[in-house]
Amino acid sequence: MAISTDRQEPLQVIGGSIAGLMQGIMLKRLGHHVQIFERATSNDRAEGGTGITVGPDAQRFYHQYDLLKQSLYVDNPGIQFMNGQGNVTRFTKRPMKMSSWSLLHFNLRANFDGHKSSLCPDPPAPCEGDGEAIFHLGKKVIGVEYAEGDSRVAVRYQDLLQGEICTVDGDLVIVADGASSSTRTQLLPEVKRQYAGYLAWRGYVEESRVSQETRKLLDPNFTSFSFTGGYILSYIIPSIDGSLEPGKRRINWVWYHDCPETSPSFKESLTDAGGHVYRNYVPVGQIRASVWKERVEMASKILNPPFVELVMKTAASAAAISVIHDYASPKALFHNDKVLLVGDALALFRPHAALSFNQAAQNCLLMEDVMRKKIDLHTWEKGVTAYGNRGLAINEMLGGFMIYGTQKLS
């Protein structure tokens, strides 16, 4: 199917997070009108302290499309490995650029529709030739419908602010609504999240609250310490207000720990103070006090001194838990090539190799080649599904090696 060249016809994007915004910006800059349908009812997003590695495709995207040209990254020379005493035993040169989800997200919003935020208070003016960019809040997509022979796809959504069920037609619909994509479930009900067998405890602490000794050990590298049944890592990310100034930034840590789904600690860890059991992610501030206290006590028993300090100085309000899942969709095109899956809606990786953010950019830049008629949609599909399958395998093997000491495959 050839994509319509009518730039007056709005293109629809389901999901207003990283992958959806990247697609929207690219299409807008090529002169297309774009509508993004986002389930969240507010532009305000809770600061989760999520650190992100900005890979080569993502760097290329920002270089090409970021009109703000603001400083977004903390440069990281490589990975250092520590022993139980907190001494560095090995260093691998692997330059990386680290940032935070919030800073990158609001930069993309500013570039897409000129949204002002505390992180991006001066959004760029539209470029000559830009298409119209509309970001719809409170629009929960409940299905895409297509009858064979139709020229358009119907997107049905619930307006969470008005309580209405509405429909919008589109010649091209890009599904970017993340790992819990209801649209992917409709299109590929057999593709389900697979639990990896372990949880990721996450947190951050301001540099200024960490001892000089520990800061000197950790800055500026990505640091890792392995133990039986898990490992913990740390790296530096921008401050809550986006500052990259040393002393004002945050040290982000992620602690992977084996936790069978049938174990009592699995449900205990995911249950908040009100008794609600989370399925995929316990947000910051929702970990029960008793659960967090137990985790801090465990840290003092099995982690080395620098990481013990990080965990002990992390407030419960700055900690979260991720249930580690993965999957890869076997295809990305649907309904006569009018509906496309991208980003985490297409493939969800375990986070060990930090490829998810780069996947969103890779999918987008390859889609740009489609829009410029350099490749067709089926070549695009081969490229994005290959990236998804490769990312799935790399992270599964890396996680198995780091946590279990073997390339444990499910």
Automatic annotation (TrEMBL):
Superkingdom assignment: Eukaryota
Sequence ranges assigned to domain 2,6-dihydroxypyridine 3-monooxygenase substrate binding in this UniProt record: 195-316
InterPro entries, per database record: DHP_3-monooxygenase, DhpH_subs-bd, FAD/NAD-bd_sf
PANTHER family tied to this protein: MONOOXYGENASE-LIKE, OS06G0597600 PROTEIN
The name this protein goes by in its record: 2,6-dihydroxypyridine 3-monooxygenase substrate binding domain-containing protein
The organism of origin for this protein: Penicillium cinerascens
